[in-house]
Amino acid sequence: MNFAGFICDNTGLVLEYTANHVSLVIGVLLLSLALWITTGLLISRHARLAGAVIGLGNVVFCIPSISLFGLFMSVPGLGLGRRTATVVLVLYAMMPLIRSVHAGIRSVDAAVVNAGKGMGMTNLQLLLKIQVPMAWPAVFAGIRVTVVLITGIATMATFIGERNLGRLIHQGITRGDADMIVAGALIVSLIALLLDYLMGRVERIIISPGLRYQSLEPYRGSA
Amino acid sequence: MIHFDQVSKTFAASQRPAVDRITLHVKQGNICVFVGPSGCGKTTILRMINRLVTPDGGTITIDGRSIMQMDPPALRRTIGYVIQQVGLLPHRTIAQNIALVPELLKWPRDKTEKRVLELIEMMGLDPSEVGHKYPHQLSGGQAQRVGVARALAADPPIMLMDEPFAAVDPIVRLRLQDEFLRLQQTVQKTICFVTHDINEAIKLGDYLVVLKEGRLVQTGTPIEILTQPEDDFVLSLLGDDRGVKILDLTRAETLMEPFENRLGPIKSNGHRVQSIDPVKIALEMMMQKNTDEILVCKGTRPVGILRWPAIKTHVNRISGGTV
Amino acid sequence: MNFDMDLFSQALLQRAPGHIAEHLQLVIIPLVLAILIAMPAGILLTRPAYRHHGRRVMSVFNAGQTIPPLAVIALFFPLLGLGYGPAILALTIYALLPIARNTVAAISAVPAEVKDAARGMGMTPKEILFRVELPLSVPTIMSGVKTAAILTVSTAVLAALVGGKGMGAIIFAGINFFRFELVLAGTIYIGLMAIVLERALSLLEGLLTPAHLKNRHGAHRRAA
Question: How far apart are CA B151 and CA B100, in angstroms?
C-alpha cells in the first residue's frame, strides 16, 4: 500500500478536503455547544422534560446518518451541501451533549447543594457556582465523545455534496483504489485524535484538579 | 494451634518490611488480637494465615502443618474470614451468602439449609425476615452479623477477623462486641482479630499482640500489657485512662480485705459486689452511693470488704502515681 | 418538496421489505461474532496475567472508535472485494469495541472487597469469575451489547456501498436519485429493526440479571 504516495501526488486536493472537513466539524461543534449545553442546563431542573429531550436525542441517534442526510436534503432551504450537513451533525451532537450535561448536574452530591443552599445561595448561584463547575468533568467527557463522533460522521456528508475527506473514501470504493481509502480514513482518524487530544488539554486547564475524571469510562453509547 | 516462626514480608513497592521476623503462637480456643496503628502490619499478618499474602521468609504452621503445603482455596475453606467492608456478594440473598462455603465444600442441600437457618438465628436475626433479603437492604450492623455467620458456616476451627466492627457506629459496635464474646463462649473458635482500637483489643482479647512498623513490640494478656507496658509506644497506645482500664480488668476479690474466718455480725451499708466483678463497678458504686467501702460477696456469702484507699494504692503503684 | 405518495407506498410495501432479511443477516452475524470474540477477550484482559495490558489494549480500542464507520467498511473492501464478506468482517470489528470495553469496565468495577471476601472464603479464580464477577457484570455488559446492536443496525446501511446489499440499497438509491420517499421508507424499517432488537436484548438481559441488580439498575449503572 502506498497511501503516502497518494497524499503526495494529490496534496492540493487532500488539503482542500481536510480544510473543509475541519471547518465543518468546528462549526458544528461551536453551534452544538452553544445550543445543547444551554438546553441541557435549562432542562436539568425538570426531570420529566429532561427525560423527553434525552429520549428524542436517543431516537435521532438510532437513525443512520445517511438517512438523516437524505431526509434533510429535501427540506426546502437546506438542499445539497453545507447547510444540511451542519443541521444533521448538530442533531447528532444532541444526544451525547445533553446527556452528559444532565448526568453531570445530577451527579452533583446533594449534600454539596444543600450546603450551598444553607449558605444562602440563590438557584442561579447554586447552578453557576456549584452545579456547573462540578458537572464539568462529565460534560467534558461528553464533549470529547461528540468531537470524535462528529468527525467520523462528517465523512458521510460527502453523499450530499460536501467536498471533504469522506470523498476520498467514497471515490476510493468506486475506483477500487485502496490507497485513496486508507489516506482518507487515516486523515479522518488523525483529525479525531488530534481534536480529542486538544480537548483533553483544555480540560486540564479548565477543570479543578479536585474533580479529574477517570478517562477509562465504560462505553455507554445510545443504550 | 497457629504458629509463626520468623515470618517476614516485604511488599514490592516498599523498602521497609511490612512484617519483620514475627514469631508467636496462637492457642486453641483463644481470641488473639493484633493491635497497632495503621501500617503496623497487622492486616498483612492476618492475610498470611489464609495465604491471601505469601510470606517471603519464615514459616506459618497450623496444628504443626506448614500452610505452604496446603492448596490455598482448600486452606481458606477451613478458615473463616470476616473483613471490615463485609464483602457480601451483592447478587446473592443473605441465605445464599451464608451458604457459600458449604456450597464450595459440596455439602448436601438440606444440611446447608439447616445450617443457614441455625446461623441466622444464632446471630439474633429472624430467618424468615432476613433470609431472602439482599445485602443492600441490610443495616451496617446486620450486614456485619451476616458476615460473621457466613464465616462460621462450615464450622471452621479458625476465624480471621479484620477490623470487623470498625465500620459501624459506636453503639452498634459495643453491642456487636458483646454478642461476639457471647458467641465465642459457645463456638470456642481459635480467632485472630485485627483492630486499631486498643479498647476493643482489651475487651475482646485473651491475648494481645502489639505491633509497630511490622515488628512485634509486646505480647501478653490484656492485664499484663496494661500493668507492665514494655515501652513508651505501648504506654501511649494504652492511653491516659490506663488506670481505669486496669480497674476494669481487676476482680474485686484481688483488692479486698478478706474476712478471715470472722464470725459475727458484719457492719454493712448494704452495698455489695460479687467477688469476680471488676473493681471499676465497685468504684462506680462508691461514687454513686457516696461511700468508701463496699461489701464483696461470693453468691450471697460475704467474703471481704473493698475500701477506696486500697484501690487508690493499687492504681498509684502500677501507673506511677497518676491517680 | 413534493411528496410522491405512490412512490413512498411502493417503496415501503414492496421494495424495502425485500431487504429486511439481508439487513438482519448483516446485523445478527456480526453481533454474534463480536460477542463471541469480545467477551472472552474482555474477560482475559481483566485476568491478573494480562491485566497490565488492559490499559494499552483499551486505548487501542478507543483509537479504533475514531475510525469513521465508512472507513472501516471501505478498508476491508480492497482486501476482500465486493459482497457480504468484507461488510460482515467490518461490522464485526465495529461491534467488538463497545462489548469489549463494557466487559472490561464491568469486571473491573466489581468491588475489591467482594472479590477479597470471595477469595478469603476459598473460591478458586474460576469460581470467582463465574459466581461473582460475571453475574455482577451482566447489566453493564448487556448495555454494551445493546449499544453494539443499535450501532450495527445503522452502520450496516453502509454495506450497500461495497455490494453487501441490505436496507442501505434503497436508502442510497434515494440519495442518488434525490428521492426522499425511498430514504424515508428504508429508514422506517431501520428504526423498527433497532427497536425490536433492543427490546429482545432487554428481555434477554432480564433473564440473565440477578434479581437485586434489577431493582436498583440505575444505581448500579451509575456506579459502574
Answer: 9
- CATH number among 1.10.3720.10, 3.30.470.20, 1.10.10.10, 3.40.50.720, domain C5-223: 1.10.3720.10
Dihedral sign computed on CA atoms, order A194, A199, A202, A207: negative
Q: Which three cell numbers stand for residue B266?
A: 458484719
Task: Indicate yes or no: CB of C118 within 8 angstroms of CB of B89.
Answer: yes
Q: Residue A206 maps to which CATH number? A: 1.10.3720.10
CA–CA min distance B155, chain C (Å): 12
In angstroms, the separation between the Cα of residue A63 and the nearest Cα of chain C is 6
Enumerate residues 2 to 31 of chain A having a beta carbon within 8 A of any beta carbon in chain C: none
Give CA–CA dist A126/A112, Å, rounded: 10
Give the residue extent of every domain in chain C: 5-223
For C219, nearest residue in chain B (alpha carbons): B136
Q: For B219-233, how does the pLDDT look when each residue is reduced to its tens digit (9 = 90+)?
A: 999 989 988 898 999
Tens-place pLDDT, residues B202-260: 999 999 999 999 999 999 999 899 888 989 999 999 988 888 888 888 888 888 888 87
Give residues 52 to 91 of C whose Cβ lies within 8 Å of A: 55, 58, 63, 65-72, 74-75, 77-79
| Domain hosting residue A39, numbered range | 3-210
| Domain total of chain A | 1
Which domains, from first to last, does chain B contain?
2-239 (3.40.50.300), 247-319 (3.90.1280.20)
Q: pLDDT tens digit string along B132-159?
A: 888 888 998 999 999 999 999 999 999 9
Q: Quick one: cell of B61?
A: 504452621
Q: Is residue A220 part of a domain?
A: no
CA distances from C108 to B75, B258, C21, C46, C114 (A): 27, 67, 38, 7, 12
Nearest CA in chain C to A222: C147
Element (H, E) at B60: strand B57-62
End-to-end CA distance of chain C: 47
User: Is the separation of the CB atoms in C193 and C153 below 8 Å?
Assistant: yes
Q: In this structure, are residues B247 and B311 in contact, taking their beta carbons and an 8 Å threshold? A: yes
In Å, how far is C88's CA from the nearest CA of chain A?
Answer: 16
CA angle in degrees (0–180, nearest 5) for C7-C10-C14:
150
Taking an 8 Å cut-off on Cβ atoms, the answer to whether C124 and B73 are in contact is: yes
**Based on C-alpha coordinates, what's the Rg of chain A?**
20
Choice among A111-125, A149-163, C183-197 with the minimum mean pLDDT: A111-125
